[in-house]
Amino acid sequence: MHDILKVLKFGMPYLSRYWFRFSLGVFLGILFGLSNATIISATTLIFNRLNASEQVHYPIAPRMSKLGARALKPPTTTDELTWSVQQYTDPAMDAINAWSEVWLPIAGRPITWLQIIGGIMLLPAITLLRGGLGYASSYFMAWTSRMVMIDLKNDVFHKLNSLSFDYHDKSTTGDHILRVNGDTGALYGCLSLGLSDLIKEPITLLTVFCTLWYIDWKLTIISTIFLPACVLPTILMGRKVRRIAKEGIRGGVMQADVLVQNFANFRIVKAFGLEARQEKLLDETVRFESRQGLRAIRQKEMLNPIIETFSSMGVGIVLVYVIWSGQTTGNLIGFLTGLGIFYGPLKKLAAIHMVFQQCSAGIDRLMEISRLKPTVVDAPDAKPLREFRDKIEFRDVSFGYSPETAAQMLEAGGALHGDPTIMVHKNLNFTIPKGSKVGIAGETGAGKTTLLNQLFRFYDVIGGSIELDGVDIRKYKLADLRSKMAIVTQDIQLFDTSIASNIAAGRPDCTHEEIVEAAKKASAHEFIMAQPNGYDTMIGERGSRLSGGQKQRVSIARAFIRDAPILVLDEATASLDSATEAEVQAAIDKLSENRTVVMVAHRLSTLRRCDKIIVIERGVIVEEGSFDELLSKGGFFAASAAKQGITAASVAMEKAESNGNGTVLEPQGATA
Ligand SMILES: Nc1ncnc2c1ncn2[C@@H]1O[C@H](COP(=O)(O)OP(=O)(O)O)[C@@H](O)[C@H]1O
Ligand SMILES: [Mg+2]
Question: Is any ligand 1 atom within 6 A of the Cβ of residue 491?
C-alpha cells in the first residue's frame, strides 16, 4: 500500500496535466466495476426462470417487510441492514421483474417472440456493455500513462542535463540511459497496467461482495472466509519482488554500461582483441539480470496458485452449504458465478501489488535524481552579460575536485600539491586582458584543463574568484557567460549527424551560407566538398568517419560560427601529426584573430604567439612571462622546452631567418 501511494504521489503532478481523460478513464473504470454486479444478477435471473417450480422473482433473498419480520422475531443488525438496503433496491427490483416478464422466457409457459429475443440477447448485451466500458477505461488510462511517460522522459533527460559535472563524474552513461528509458518505463507500466486495475478491481470486488451479500450474507461470509489468508503472502512476496527489482535494475545498468563502453572504444576492442572479454562481460550481466527476472517471476507466479487454492476451498464450502440449506439452483449458479468474479479481481489486485512493488524500485531511482540539485546554477540575482569589455582575472583561485575536503584543507592553510584529488589549485592569480593571447603551460596533470573548466563554470572555484570585467563570473547568468566563449579541445566531441549540423551546433540559428563560410575559414570546405554528400555527409559516432585533422577542422568551424569573443583552446593540436598540425594551427590562428585567447598546450612551440605564458606546476603558478622571457630565464619553462628541443638559441635563429625573409617583403622593416 505504501508503495502504491508512493508511486501515485510521484505520478500525480504528471497525471493532473491530463485530468480530463484521466478522470474519464477512472469514471468508466468505476462503471465497469459496477457492471459486474449486472452479470451475476442476470445469471441468477435467467436460471431462476428455467425452473418454474422454484421462486421466480428476483431477488432470491427472502424479501421481508419490516413489520412482518418483526412480528415473528426481534430483528438482528443484519436484518436492519438488509431492510435499509431494500428500501432503495425494491423499486428497482420491481421494475426488473416487470421487465423480465415481458422479455425473458419462463419454464412451463408459452414463449413470445420478445422473450426469444430477450433470452438470447440479455447476456451478450450485458457482456458487450461491460467489455466496452473496460476497453474505454483501459484505453484512456493507457493514453494518460503514455502522455505521463513522455513528460517524464523529457523531465528526466532535462534533469540529467541540468546536473553539473560533480554528478556526472560519478555516474555512468549506462545509468543515464536506464534512468531515461528503463525507470520511466517502469512508471508507465505501473500507470497503464496497474492504475486502471487499481480503480476497476476494488470496485468490482466491492460490488460483487455486496451482491453476494444481498443474495445470502451467511454464504458470503463462509465463502470469503479465506480472503485474509491471501493477503499475507501477497505482502511478503511483494517485498521480495521489490528487492529483486532493485537488483534487476542494477543488472540493467551494468549491461548498458558494457555495451556503451564497448562501442565507444570499439577501435581498442578490435585492436587489443578484447571481443571475447567484452562478450563474457555482457553474458555475465545479462545472466545476472535474467536471474533477477526469474526470481521475480517465481514470486509472482506462486501467488496465483495460492489464491486459487483458497478460492476453490470457498467454492467447496458453498456447495456443501447450499445442499445443506436447500437453496435454489439459480441461487447456487449465481453465487458460484459471483465467487468466480470475486476471486478474479483479487488475483488481479495481488498482481497489481506486485507490479507496483516492482515499479517502485525504478521510482526510487527517479525520486533520487529529482531530489538532486545542480551545484553550478544561476545566482538568484544573476546579471546578464551583454559584452566582454576589459579582462578576465583569476584572484586567489583555489580548487579541488572534492569540494568539502578542498575547502577544509584551504581553511587549514595547507599546501597540498601532490594529491590533486584533494586540491588541484592553490591561490592562482593572473589576468587575461581583452584581446590578448594567454598561454598556459605545465606538465600533464598540472591542472591546466581544470583551470579552463572553472572558466566555463563546469565547476565553481572553492576559494577566491574569477572575475570578468570586475564581476565574479558566478554573478552572471550562466548561459550568457558560456555564450561569450567557444572551445576547441584535444578530445574532439562531435555528434553523429551531418557535418553541417555539427558546425551549426556552434550557433543553432545560423544559415547554410554561414556554415559554409565558417568551414572555409577553418580550411574545412575542401575536404567537406570531397565527401560523398558534401555538408550533409553523416560523420559517424564521435566523427568516426573523419580523420583526426578533419574532425578538428569541423570543430574549429563550429567555434568560428559561434563567433564568441573568448576562445579557449585545450591542446587543440596535441593529437595531430605535424603536417596536419600545421594546417590546423593555421586555421586556429585565423580563428584567434581579434579574440581573447586562452591557450593550453603541453607542446610548447604552440605557445610562441602568446602575449603571456603562465606556467603551472602542481597547482601553483611558478613562472609568468613572454615566450622569449621564459626561455632566457632558464627556469621550469626553459627546462621543459629544452626537453622538446626548443632553446633560446634555436628560437633566435628561427627568428633571424624569418626576419631575413621579412626584410625582403617589408621595406619598412629594412629602414627601421
Ligand atoms: N573530474 C575529475 N575528478 C577528480 N579529479 C580530476 C578530475 N579531472 C582531473 N582530475 C585530476 O586533477 C588533476 C589535474 O588534471 P587536469 O586539469 O586535467 O590536468 P592537465 O594539466 O593535464 O590538463 C589531475 O591530477 C587529475 O587526476
Ligand atoms: Mg588537460
Answer: no
